[in-house]
Every structure is written in C-alpha cells, then in structure tokens.
Specification:
Blueprint: E1 4-8, H1 15-25, H2 28-31, E2 35-37, E3 47-51, E4 56-63, E5 74-81, H3 83-93, H4 99-117, H5 119-137
Antiparallel strand pairs: 1-5, 2-3, 3-4, 4-5
Length: 142
Amino acid sequence: MIGRQVILINKSLTLQELEQIMQNNWDKEQYGSFKIGRPTSASIEEYILLPATRRYLTIVYPRAAGGFFSKENKVILSTADSPEGAQIAIAEYLPVKGPLLNILQTKSVLSAEKERKGPAEEMLQAYTAHMKEILKKNGLLK
C-alpha cells in the first residue's frame, strides 16, 4: 500500500525499545537521524520521526498483538504530514473565491499528492528496507 508499510515481528516492542534498537543499528550517515515526537501538534501520540520531504515525514511505531485490529506484533512505517506540510495543507483547503485562485489551489494539492506518491514514498520504501535489515539482525523479524 502506498504511504504505509507493515513489518511483522516476533515479539511486542514499546516505542522506547524500538528507538533503542534503532539507536544501536540505524545508519545515520545514509538515512539521517531521527527523534521521538509528534509530527504535528494535533497528533494523538508520539512516533519515531524520520525526514522524507518538505511536506512529509515518515513515522515509525510498534503495535503489539491483541485486539480486533492488531492480530500480530508489528512495526509500522507510514507517511505523515510534517509540521510545515500540515500548515500548507490547511491553507490549501481553506475556501477561496474566484476561478484563478481555485486553479492555483487545485494545482498545489495535486503537487502535494505527487510529492507524497513520489519522493516521500521512495523514502518510505528505503526506510522500510533498512528497518527490515535491522529487525532481522536483532532476531526480531517474523
């Protein structure tokens, strides 16, 4: 699925445990650094944040098995708005008057969609491949 990758793991992890595994194994030279935080002020929980593009971040978080929606332990990587991207998105969806402004607004939204499906998706795929290597190295890949 575009914008979201799921890696099945053989045990449950907390966000802090996943962060520690990444601290010990993440190739910062090739993939950059990361931090724990909320992608935007409206975010419900904290995630591991990785840069993707100006408008988008890749968020990483574990989910434990149990419950209706989570039947297996997993690590999820997903594309999310960056703080700047969230501000741009809000501005793009505010109603505007006049056909010229509507055209500009539509062009900006389409540009954001291309960015999400292009460079942001490429970063997500690269991060996912690296995360799989790390989890396998640590005996966590299912």
